[in-house]
Write a sequence for this structure.
């Protein structure tokens, strides 16, 4: 089929003339001026004649903000729309030109093909992105990424606009006249459609435990993550590829047994060292619940998911507050780690000494919003029972196999230098660890941390804690054996290996992510959403008298109402009333998407909903 290309604001039509020789391309070239106005411009008549000889359409007096009035989608959508150096004319300032671009992008959305592109060339500095050198202050730029986001577009590429390489091209239109202007340092911005912001329906998860079937409402913040199947056999996701490579390498050093299929999503056993606010507490339905014995086995026969009936008597957020004191017999939570599952297998004696047992799957933790804090990630746990006195050699073999596997993967992807080190746990304070390593330290006494550092990619974290190791001498019936446990965060490994800067990108629904990893092949990731706009909003409130403020719940509500668009929450002010004794807090929230168009209006709605939710759920008094 012919590729349909629309050119707007052509002026003398020299740019359109340079493109008209392209094969299997139908060009529609337009300008804002009338035919009479353009006819007197230098070389315009010559270019128009050339275009018509090559079969191009010429349309005069086209308003770029009302494209549907000129081009009906029924006659064919455009695969590419070009708008070089848009301007309101005369001495219009940045605000007027932002408005022009805003209406232009909204108009494009009505005539552009689903996978089409919009090319907008701007003079140096106008766009307001880091690609401009020097970059203007945001308020003094055209804010093109934010303006495009309002119409559902993301900036997917940007490169220099090299006018000198375009045969016959002459820029014109300076202050609406047949005069040229400086295009040195100009940039071509390429926009594509964003996937829409999600609107999640409540989801019910059904689990079979023994002969009983129980169900629960999935926490709203996890609805788009609970059943993604990244580790399944037919998955091309990089997290699965990393897992398979690790498993293959370790099978060269150990007899290996995979026991992923029977792990329960739910835990009930009390975790003494873990703060209750870090757990996703859930309420089972119907009232008949599995016995403690069934839950302690940590095994599930089947899991199914369905959309919830809103009339059901379930918490609207899908999670409940942790009870004061210890958890009761009817309180359950989503598994925060696979280590308790591994420990249950050991305690039941369901293991073979000398065999490396492998468990993997998603785990769920409430946590503060931070670049490396993930409320869900894929954990891989290794368990091996060895003769007492040989545990150190087992740890060394395990670490060497992990190192060999990661080195091999990383060299294939980027060729950059990678350093993986095993470090004593006693050398670090909890504050020095990332969220993953710090939480594992709460679960059990960690003896070693595994750290991975990469010769850095420009856009992502240089290094991170990716794993932990511990040994247990008192969890077996036999006093002759010692158990070695190792846990790896597969998501962080995939990010470091593929140069993925934002953990949320692993969970994107945009097909452009997985298309970069065909057949499970790992490659250096190239973002399809560049320089996404960010928005800041403040919220201040009085704390309820005599109650401890749950900051983790505060952050979790922000995750929930924003669909993980809140990327930073900072306490910027704290005030104690001298007479009433009441305490007031002021937080600054930063919203930004890594893969979707996010507009100022959408963020304003998120902020309003956030204020409403913290007022109702945390009982704070808004100021």
């Amino acid at each position: 089929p012919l590729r349909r290309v629309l050119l707007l604001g052509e002026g003398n039509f020299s740019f359109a003339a340079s493109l008209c020789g392209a094969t299997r391309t139908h060009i529609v070239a337009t300008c804002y001026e009338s035919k009479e106005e353009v006819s007197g411009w230098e070389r315009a008549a010559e270019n128009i004649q050339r275009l018509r000889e090559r079969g191009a359409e010429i349309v005069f007096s086209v308003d770029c903000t009302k494209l549907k009035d000129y081009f009906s989608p029924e006659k064919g959508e455009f695969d590419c729309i070009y708008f070089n150096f848009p301007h309101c004319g005369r001495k219009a300032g940045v605000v007027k030109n932002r408005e022009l671009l805003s209406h232009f992008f909204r108009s494009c959305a009505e005539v552009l093909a689903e996978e089409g592109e919009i090319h907008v060339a701007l003079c140096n500095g106008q766009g307001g992105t880091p690609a401009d050198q020097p970059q203007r202050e945001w308020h003094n730029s055209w804010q093109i990424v934010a303006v495009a986001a309002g119409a559902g577009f993301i900036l997917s590429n940007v490169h220099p606009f090299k006018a000198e390489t375009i045969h016959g091209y002459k820029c014109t239109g300076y202050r609406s006249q047949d005069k040229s202007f400086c295009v040195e340092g100009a940039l071509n911005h390429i926009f594509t459609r964003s996937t829409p912001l999600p609107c999640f329906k409540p989801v019910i998860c059904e689990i079979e435990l023994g002969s009983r079937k129980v169900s629960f409402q999935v926490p709203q913040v996890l609805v788009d993550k609970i059943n993604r199947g990244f580790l399944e056999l037919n998955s091309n996701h990089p997290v699965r590829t990393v897992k398979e490579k690790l498993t293959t390498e370790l099978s060269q050093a150990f007899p290996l047994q995979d026991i992923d299929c029977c792990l329960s999503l739910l835990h009930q056993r009390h975790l003494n060292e873990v703060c209750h606010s870090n757990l996703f507490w859930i309420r089972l339905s119907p009232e008949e619940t599995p016995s403690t014995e069934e839950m302690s086995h940590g095994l599930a026969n089947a899991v199914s998911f369905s959309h919830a009936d809103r009339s059901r008597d379930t918490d609207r957020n899908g999670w409940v507050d942790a009870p004061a004191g210890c958890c009761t017999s009817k309180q359950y939570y989503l598994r925060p780690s696979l280590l308790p599952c591994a420990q249950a297998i050991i305690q039941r004696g369901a293991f073979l000494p000398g065999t490396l047992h492998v468990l993997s799957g998603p785990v769920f933790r409430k946590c503060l919003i931070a670049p490396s804090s993930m409320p869900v990630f894929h954990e891989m746990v290794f368990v091996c029972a060895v003769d007492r006195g040989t545990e150190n050699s087992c740890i060394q073999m395990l670490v060497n196999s992990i190192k060999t596997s990661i080195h091999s993967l990383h060299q294939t992807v980027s060729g950059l230098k990678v350093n993986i080190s095993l470090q004593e746990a006693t050398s670090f304070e909890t504050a020095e660890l990332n969220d993953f390593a710090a939480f594992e330290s709460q679960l059990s006494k960690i003896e070693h941390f595994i750290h991975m550092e990469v010769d850095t990619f420009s856009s992502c974290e240089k290094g991170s804690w990716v794993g932990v190791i511990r040994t247990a001498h008192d969890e077996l019936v036999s006093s002759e054996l010692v158990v070695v446990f190792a846990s790896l965060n597969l998501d962080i490994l995939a990010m470091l290996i593929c140069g993925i800067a934002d953990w949320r990108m692993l969970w994107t629904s945009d097909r452009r992510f997985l298309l970069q990893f065909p057949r499970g092949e790992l490659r250096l990731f190239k973002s399809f959403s560049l320089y996404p706009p960010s928005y800041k909003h403040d919220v201040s409130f009085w704390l309820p008298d005599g109650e401890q403020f749950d900051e983790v719940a505060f952050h979790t509500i922000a995750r929930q109402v924003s669909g993980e668009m809140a990327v930073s929450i900072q306490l910027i002010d704290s005030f104690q009333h001298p007479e009433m004794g009441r305490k007031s807090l002021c937080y600054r929230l930063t919203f930004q998407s890594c893969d979707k168009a996010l507009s100022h209006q959408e963020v304003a709605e998120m902020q309003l909903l956030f204020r409403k939710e913290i007022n109702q759920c945390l009982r704070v008094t808004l100021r």
